[in-house]
Amino acid sequence: MSVYYYLIRNSGPFVKEGRREITEAEWRVAVAADPDLAIEQPEQSGPRGASSGVWAVWHSYLGGYPAWFVLLKNGDVEVKEMDEALFGKFKRLASALGARIFCETGEEFT
Question: Which of 19, 40, 58, 98 is deepest in the core (most CB within 10 A)?
Answer without folding.
Answer: 58
